[in-house]
């Protein structure tokens, strides 16, 4: 069950977009959850971008340290972050995240893309 209060949406560009890079990114995303820094609600690694919706349980600095070896350059526009309000906002953002591989032409259905919470459900 998703938290009705909202969540933190993160999006950033990846340098490499191969399977190894996608797996490493997923390992780092799940690390923060294992450390109880946040609950990972939905995520995708597709194209050259990562999108994630999480419910924070720690400071942004602690979350960033778990997710990134080297944080993305905020000034370059390669990183976006915003608060998503309420259940409706969470549902809309989850759909946006999980439909990304379809929009990019990488899969016919969200659950077919292996680097997504849609496939993990």
Describe this entry's structure for a reader:
The protein is of the alpha+beta class. It has a single domain, classed as Alpha-Beta Plaits (2-Layer Sandwich). Helices cover 38% and strands 26% of the residues. It is built from 4 helices and 4 strands, in the order βαββαβαα. It has helices spanning 19-34, 60-67, 86-103, 117-120; strands at residues 6-13, 38-46, 49-56, 79-85. Strands 2-3-1-4 form a 4-stranded antiparallel beta sheet, sandwiched between helices. Strand 2 (38-46) and strand 3 (49-56) form a beta hairpin. The longest helix is centred in the C-terminal third of the chain and has 18 residues, at 86-103. The mean pLDDT is 87.
Give a quick set of tags describing it.
121 residues, alpha+beta, Alpha-Beta Plaits, four-stranded antiparallel sheet, 4 helices, 4 strands, 38% helix
Mean pLDDT: 87
Considering the protein shown, what is the CATH homologous superfamily? Transposase IS200-like
- Sheet of most strands: 4 strands, antiparallel
Could you tell me how far the N terminus lies from the C terminus, measured between alpha carbons in angstroms?
A: 13 Å
Strand order of the largest sheet: 2-3-1-4
Helix/strand/pairing class, anyone?
alpha+beta
Instruction: Give the CATH level 1 class.
Output: Alpha Beta
Number of helices: 4
- Second rung of CATH, namely the architecture: 2-Layer Sandwich
In the residues, how many domains can be counted?
1
Which band does the percent of strand residues land in? Answer: 25-35%
The count of DSSP E runs of length 2 or more, i.e. the number of strands, is 4
Morphology: globular
Gyration radius, to the nearest Å? 13 Å
Helix percent band: 25-40%
* CATH topology title: Alpha-Beta Plaits
Order of secondary-structure elements: EHEEHEHH
| Unreliably modeled segments | none
